[in-house]
Structure formats: structure tokens, C-alpha cells
Amino acid sequence: MIPDDVLFVSVASSSLPKARLHAVRVGSNPPIVMLAPEKTLECPYNPAHQIRSDVFQRHLIKCAKNHPGVELETCPLNLLHRIKKGYMAEHMQICPDRTQLERHVMESLGIYTEDIMAHLLAVVVAAFLISAVISPAQSVAVMSIDLGSEWMKVAVVSPGMPMEIALNKESKRKTPVAVAFRDGERVFGEDAQNVGSRFPKQAYIYLLDVLGKTPDNPLVQQFLKRFPQYEIVADPETGLAVFRHDENTLYSPEELIAMILNKGREYAQEFVEQKPIKDVVITVPAFFNQAERRAMLRAAELANLKVLQLINDNTAAALNYGIFRRKEFTETPQRILFFDMGASSTVATVASYQIAKTKERGFVETNPQVSIIGIGYDRTLGGLEMQLRLRDHLANVFNSQKKTPNDVFKNPRSMQKLFKEAGRLKNVLSANSDHVSQVEGLLDEQDFRAPVTRDEFETLCADLFERVAQPLKDAVSSAGLSLEHIDQVILVGAGTRVPKVQEKIHQYVSKELGKSLNTDEAAAMGAVYRAADQSPAFKVKKFVVKDAVIYPVQVDYVREVTNEDGTVSSKTVRSSLFGPMNPYPQKKIMSFRKHVDDFSFNVNYGDLSHLPASDAANLGSLNISEVKISGVSDAINKHSANQAEGTSVDMKGVKAHFVLDESGVVRLTSVEYVIEKTETKKHDAESPLSRLGNTISAFFSGGKEENEAGAETEAPSSDAQPKENASASTNETVANAETKTNATSDGKPVVSNIKETLKILEILRDVVEPSAESLETRAKRLEELNAADNKRHEREAARNALESFALDVQDKFTQEEFERATTSEERDIVLAECSTVSDWLYEDGFDAEATEFRSRLSSLKSKTAAIFDRVAEHARRPEMLEYLETSVASSKNFSAEAKAMKEELFTKVELETLDKLITDTEKWRDTKLAEQDALALTSKPVLTLSMIAEKMQALDREIKYLVNKGKINAARKAEEIAAKKAEEAKKKAEADGSNVADEAKKVDDAFKLPPNLFDPSKMTPDQMELLKSMLDEKLKENPESAKVFEQVLKATEKLDLPLKEPEVPSPLPQADKVSKTDASESEVNHSEL
Fold it and tell me: pLDDT at position 1029, please?
């Protein structure tokens, strides 16, 4: 039964339309707040975005416990359903608005002042729950930025919106990676490319080739050879490559990339109409080394972005492939070879897909997993090199035409025009066998025009095409496989559209080339899925990602050894930390067991013999960092001196904890000295409570120290190479000691593991990073540039709004409807004002401030507002009057039908009230219409659209009230009639009970059936089925009894005997049902996320 005193409160979240909190208060002494949890609260636009009901319940309990006199219970769902469908139904119909519903329910249930506190408690708890579970930080969107050498793609996902590519201001799905400065303004994308065509030095492109490198790096030298318009110098502080913009300005690649990342964030924010967006996953090339990855993280920090992860672009593309096909993977590995040719580089990747058991969130789960098991790459093979060769070919053709004595190669602006034309030509020749290249005013006002064939293009790039297969060979080889083990080859990247590239790939793999992935957007979409997985605001179906190490990392250190002759010499020890193709993220512990004093070690790149010699040179310094450890002797002395009797100490040595995080960056998290102390002494007899406490302590301490997976010890020694010396930034950490004790019973040794945290001084040696002060200065400069851009955009928007409005007014005032509704004096005044505004805009006011534009726009709108309203009133009045007429006619029909009904669903007063409202509305309409017709069109209307709408709403409210009340009264009458009929049927059935028993006895006697077969309390569906089959046989044998049997059946129907057929159980085992359900619940629909 439904309680007499019930308050039902439902609070909805604005960001999750379907998320509900149901709180039910039953009784008032003491007040009981009841939560009706649903299995899952989910958003209809995004089934993968779910909030568990137990999270709601925990917060409700936490809040309600703080309120005195409140008890908590769990309200069964069926009670909630009865409340919603039964008792609450009439109130839902009367008050469809939620606020009105709550107020009406309170009044109808007699909940006033004495119960208002309990009501407020439920509402406050609900509000707290919504704010706690969906905090502002979690409700915002997350994004991914696929930052390539040439193009940037931005993907975004937010509550209520699936994963999608964000469009830029030109409504395009990809944006050129370019930023330019001209006349004090900063522009991006295509605008920057246009600036670069005229002023090549002012526009910065292909910035990834310079990021995190010194000017003498071979890749930087190659960049300067390709783009000689730039001047690159060494940063005075760090020695890294920076651009000299002018005599007083230097821009680092990190700053320029930060500007582009911030612009990508703006595209995402405008696309989802949500600010701010800070959480991002950024793609980087798989071959990025430690210095380049840290530089990208610095760029994101300058852009005020929170990097959830740097994901390799090949891994992001592989993830995008997998999330669409998660049902296809089994425990048997499926190996896919991805070939990605971009603008600057080429990467081949072997990815293995399978269902695997993982312990990602503290418990074992079975999820699909993609593991990168093989990688091959070429850092200089890409579409850019093809475009540059085509550019040089066009320049040679122009010079050969001898249209001007000047050499086009010596004119940066002309070469930039040819570079742009070469890019267009390369794309066209991918689909056509020949094309005509043409550039207007290339040099000395001379136009260029020349035919180019695909054969010529392939001849120019013949040696590049011969290098296509090598990354494929390296990827398969590093995976330890052969081509027979590869199930499919998938193309990624715009460079794979070149026919000759596809031909070379096919020649090597001898397999059909898959083109199922979107070559431009695969990495961005895979990265945004990863962003949603990393963000606490979303819950997506797990897809485990295991990336692979390309450059092995090792630890080198010097240890003193005593020779046979008693002399002491130094010995260099090298220990592998993260080997080639090791999966990451992962943690490692490096042990230094024989060091008894302060020492240092180097973190270096390991054996690079598996890479070409040019790649090793591109890495720069092979010494990543130098780490100095201090406090070793102090830790030893602290625990070796003054030992108590019966105590022994075992020095386990120094343990350094490393992690290769999800961004592929090696980090030293902590260094500690471990001492194992064994103490033997007798204890007094322990009480049962004490023994219980020791047992619990031992259980939670885990007993033994748990080493992390892949722990390394000292490796065989080899001769060391001298390391580079350079000034570098430092990082120091100091912490306190930690002790773990394994308690034992009386009289047995007590073993204590003591960890003394040591002091760390880490000095980066591969590149010197900017100081905190330098980063703060650069961040401030970027903020100033952003503020200047925002101010300029605000001014441009205000100017455009004023200009558009003035032109719109001038155009509309020539239209017939405006001429009829205005006097000539009004038109002259407004048109003169518009003319004044236009003249001011095109002369003195073009560079005015945004406030001035808005002020003039406001003034112009105030002078035209009455005219626009008057025209709109005249234009829409006939239509609104027709609507009013329809409403009046419908109300009259309803009144007539209500009066003609036999059932008295409405009172006489209610019907008279409706008739009076109809009559008053008709009189008001006729009066106002006559007044309006008497006025000129240029006068202020006396019959407005809002007045007509109010009259319509009044009729609509009255009719809805009567309709809802009619439904309620009809339902009550139906219930009364049903109850009456049920009572009559019950009495009749009781009266007919003796007759039924007599007829049943006749059947028993005639067919020799078991006694009491027709007893409803003992009849089962199986027995009924048996009875029916037996009766069929008996009826065939004894037709005279058919009439008696029919009478018995009619009598048994009154007793509600279970004559239904039994339910047939599903042929599937229960375990299969569960697995199928789990699979459907864990599946991600990528198009809906």
C-alpha cells in the first residue's frame, strides 16, 4: 500500500537530461528519507556516459547523517513505481511543471509548516548530490588535438554531444599548422598561409621539425635548407633552437605551438559552446624522443592546457580502428599493419588486438586490448619532401622560360607561391595523369604556366618511393614476425593517397590495402576517445592501450671495486631499464646494493644498433639526465649504530623507482634506502584484542614488500663512454622515512622493513629546459597576445554588427510594408542616421573601440525599435486572430459536449465559468479589432500580438484544467464500477462454489481422474496441461461427457484456475545470458559518444 503521508521529490540535472534523484519521505516521526536508486542513470544522447546510483546513495547517506532525527532506508523500486504510476498520476497530469508538481503535492498531502524542514532536507540533499556528482570541473568537455606537421585536427566530446571533429571559423575540419604576425596582428591557419605567401618570414610552419632541438641538430639544419627565409639561433638560456622574428623578438617553437594549441582550444569551445576546455590529449609522432616530448608538454603548459596524455599518433589511429570493432576481437591475437605517411615522416606500426584480462582499476577485468608490438619509421620521408621537389621543378621550368633575368630561387616570396602551387599540384596528380600549373604574377609581374604529368612527378621522387617499403620491413622485424602473420594492412595519412606509394606498399606486402580508416581524422578521433576515458567526467567502455618503447633507456653508474692486488679501481655498470619494444606505461625499480656512500648515475639511451645511424644523430645527446643521490651514509649510520641486544640489521641497498608514463616520458619518482631490521625478544602474553589488532595490521600491511613488475638488478658491467657535461635545470626532493613491520607471535623474530627516502638532484643533460621565470615570462607574453586578439575580435564583431544593421535598415525601409507603416518624416530621420553611421564607419570610425560601435548600434536600434515592432504587429495580426478564432471555436465545442454528457464529470459552476470566459474573449476581440481598424497604420497598435496570446492562453488553461479533472473523475468512476463488479462476481462465485464441486465430482467419476483435481490451490500449470491431454483422450472415448465437461470449464473460469500454458525456458544457459548482457552493456557506440 501507498503510505498516507508521502513526499516524492525528483531533481533533474541540467547537463544530464535523464539523470534523476528520487527521494521519498514517509511519515514524520521520525522523518525517514528514502532513496530509490536506479541501476544506471544515463544520458539519452550518450549511452556510454553513465553515473552509478550507488554514488548517489553514498552522498545521500553522508548528507542525511548530519541531520538530527533522520533515518535512512532504501525505497524499493516497485514502491517508487506505484507512487509514480498510481497515487502521483493525477498530480502529474494537473501539474506537468515540476515546480508546480512539488508545491501541489505538498498541499494535497497536508504538508505545511510542521513538515517543511523534512521537505527542505530532501530538496537540499538532492541539490547537493547533483552538484557533488557532476561538479563544474567534470561537466565540461574534453578534447584532443592531432597536431601534425602540416595540419591540425581538433576533436571534442561533451555531455550530450558525441565525439566529433570541431570545425574552424571557415567551417572546415582541419586547419593548417601555421601562425603569422603582421602589422601588430596575429593570424592562424589559412590566414597565416596567405600572409606567408607575401611575407614568408612572418609566417611559421612545420614547427615540429624544430621542437626540442638545438640549432646544430641535423633535422634543424634540414629545416633551414628547406625554408631558408627563417633565421634560427640558439636560445641564450637553454641553447635550444629559437626563431629570430625581428631585432628585439625571439619566438621559441614551444611558444608558437602553444599559440596553435590555444587556437585549437578556441575551435573546440566554439563548437560545443562551452568554456573553458582545459583537458586535452595531444598526438605526437611515435619517434619523438624524451626532449621533444617534454617540449610538447611545456608548450601545452604555456597554453594553460592540462595534458591528460601525449599519445603517439600511430597508436591513436590503431585505437580508433579498434573501438569500432571491439566485438570482432577474441583471445587469439589479430595483427594489423598500419602504414601512415604524413607531411614530414612515415611510420609503420604492427598492432595486436585481442581480449585480455587486465587489472587497470584494482580488480581483474576482461577487455579488448591493442598492443603496439612493432614500429618502423622514416623521419624525412613524407609529402613535404615530394612537394619541395615539385616546387623546385616548377622553379627550374620558370627560369628556363626566361621571362625575366632574375632567378626565382633567390626570391623568397616567389618560392613561397611556388611551394603553395606545388602542394595543390601534388594533390591533383594523385587523381589525374596530368595537369597544368599556373601562378599569376610569380616574379617581376610575370605569370607562370606549365604542364606537369604524373610520370614527371614520379621521376622527381623516384628515390623517395624506393624508401617506402623500409619502414614496413622494420615494423615487421621489430615485432618478431613475418608478413604471413599479418592479417591486414591499413593505410593512414594523406601521403598514402599518392598512387606510387600504394603501388610500392602492395609490392612488399602482397596483400589488399585496407582503406577503411579516415586517413585525416583517425588519430584525432582515437585520441578524443582516450581523452574521454582519462577524464572523470565520462565513463566509456574500456579499451586497454599498450604502447611500445622505440628508444631503449638504461642506467649507467660507476662503482669502485677492489682488485686482486688490493688496488681500487672504478667500474662502469650498465643496467637496462626499458628495453626496445617494451610496453608502457610501466614502472621499474633499480637496485644499487653495494653503495654505502653518496653516488650518482646517468639515465641514457640504450643500444640503438637497431636504428639507422642518421636516427641516432637526430637524437642529439644520448645522455638524458644525471641523478645525484645523497644521504646514503646517513641512512646506514642511523640504523647500524647503537643496536639493541637481540637486534640484527640487513642493509638491502638503494632502490630507485622509475616510471615510463602514458606520455612516454621517463621519470624518477623516488629513491630510498631499504633496511631490514630483525628483532628477537619475548613479549608478555597478548590479550585476544591485541592479537586481533596484530592480525589485522599484518593483513593490511601485506606481509612482504611487494616489488613492482620488471624490477631490475645490476647488469653485467662493460666499459663506459664519457658523458657530455652541460648546465641544466635541477629537481630536488626530500621525504621522511617509512617503516613496515611484520608482527609475529610471542618469542619469534620481528622483521621491520625501514625505508629512508634519500635526497635527489636530477640534472637534465639531453637539453637544458627553460627556468620557471623564463616560462612565466613567455606565458605572460602569450596572455598579452591573446588579450590583444580578443580585443581586436571584439572590435571587429561590434563594427560588423553596426555595419550590418545600418545596411539592413536602409534596405528594409524601401520595402512596401515599411513604407505603409511609417511616415515620410520617420523614414527620413532613420535613413539619415544610417547614412551618418555608414560614412563614419568608412572614414574616421573604422578603428574606433568596440564600446563606441556598440553605443552607436544601441542608439540606432532604439530609434528603429518602434517601427520594427509596428511592422511586425501588422504583418502577424491576421494570423494570430485566426488562431484565436480557432481557440474560441474549440472551447465552444468542448463546452457543448461537456453539457451533453450523461456522466457528471464537471460541476455547473465550472461550465458556467468556461462559458463566461468564452463570451468575454469574443467581446474583447470585437471591441479591440474595431479600435484597431479605426487607427492609421502609422499609429501605435491597440491590439497587439501579446494581448491576443494572453487571451488564447487563458482559454487553453481553462480547457486543460477541465480535461485533466475529467480524466481524474472518469478514472475514479471506472474504479468504482470495477470494484462493484468485482464484488458481485466474488459473491456469485461463492454462491456457485457447491455447483462447481458437484460437477467436478461427476467428471472425476466419469473419467476416473484423481480426486480434488480442480482444487485451485493445488493445481499447477503442468498438472493443467496433463489434465487437458487426459480430458481430450477421455472425450474421444466418451462423447456424452463433453457437455458435462464444458459446464465444468465454465465453472472453473469463475475460480481463476491457472489455465495458462507454462512458460518455456530459454535454451541458452544462464552463463551465456549473462555474458551477452555484459557484452551489450560494455559496448561503445562510437557515433553516439
Answer: 62
User: What DSSP designation does 1062 have?
Assistant: P
d(CA 418, CA 405): 18
CATH topology of domain 383-466: Actin; Chain A, domain 4 (3.90.640)
* DSSP label at residue 39: S
Greater confidence (701 vs 1023) lies with 1023
pLDDT, residue 1008, reads: 47
One-letter amino acid identity for 485? H
- The label of the residue with cell 574521454 reads 532
Instruction: Report the distance separating Cα 745 and Cα 690, nearest Å.
Output: 11
pLDDT value at position 941? 92
Least confident span in 69-73, 347-351, 586-590, 747-751: 69-73
Q: Which tens digit of pLDDT belongs to each residue from 521-556?
A: 999 999 999 999 998 888 888 999 999 999 999 999
Cα-Cα-Cα-Cα torsion 769, 772, 777, 781, nearest 10 degrees, comes to: 70
How many Å apart are CA 788 and CA 796, to the nearest integer? 12
φ and ψ at residue 613, rounded to 5 degrees:
-60, -35
Q: Identity (one letter) of the amino acid at 560?
A: E
- Contacts with 853 (C-beta within 8 Å, 6 or more apart), sequence order: 795, 798, 799, 801, 802, 845
Amino acid (one-letter) located at 378: D
- Phi, psi dihedrals of residue 809, rounded to the nearest 5°: -65, -45
Q: How many CB atoms within 10 Å of residue 754?
A: 20
**What digits encode the pLDDT tens for the residues 147-198?**
999 999 999 999 888 899 999 999 999 999 999 998 889 999 999 999 998 9
Cα-flanking dihedrals φ and ψ of residue 1023, to 5°?
A: -65, -35
Beta-carbon neighbour count of residue 87 at 10 Å? 17
Domain ranges of the chain: 6-134, 142-381+468-548, 383-466, 553-770, 775-976, 993-1053+1055-1089
At 473 the pLDDT is 95
DSSP state of 303: T
DSSP structure class, residue 327? G
What whole-number distance in Å separates Cα of residue 478 and Cα of residue 302? 37
pLDDT in tens, 273-306: 888 999 999 999 999 999 999 999 999 999 999 9
Cell numbers given for 241: 633552437
CATH number for the domain whose boundaries are 142-381+468-548 = 3.30.420.40
- Specify whether the CB–CB gap between 328 and 349 falls below 8 A: no
Fold of domain 775-976: Substrate Binding Domain Of Dnak; Chain:A; Domain 2 (1.20.1270)
Cα–Cα distance, 152 to 256 (Å, whole number)? 14
Please tell me whether the overall predicted TM-score, pTM, comes out greater than 0.85 for this model: no
The residues near 798 (Cβ < 8 Å, ≥ 6 apart) are: 850, 853, 854, 857
- Residues in CB range of 700: below 8 A, 6 or more apart: none
Q: How far apart are CA 430 and CA 869, in angstroms?
A: 58
Ramachandran region of residue 806, left (φ > 0), alpha (ψ -120 to 50) or beta? alpha
Sequence-distant (≥ 6) Cβ neighbours of residue 1060 within 8 angstroms: 1021
DSSP-derived pairing of the beta strands 185-188 and 178-182: antiparallel
Check: CB of residue 291 under 8 Å from CB of residue 240.
no
Alpha carbon distance 189, 525 (integer Å): 21
| Structural Rg of the chain based on CA atoms | 41
Show Cβ contacts of residue 168 under 8 Å, excluding neighbours closer than 6 positions.
154, 174, 175, 189, 267
* C-alpha–C-alpha distance, residues 874 and 1019, integer Å: 77
Residue owning grid cell 630507485: 656
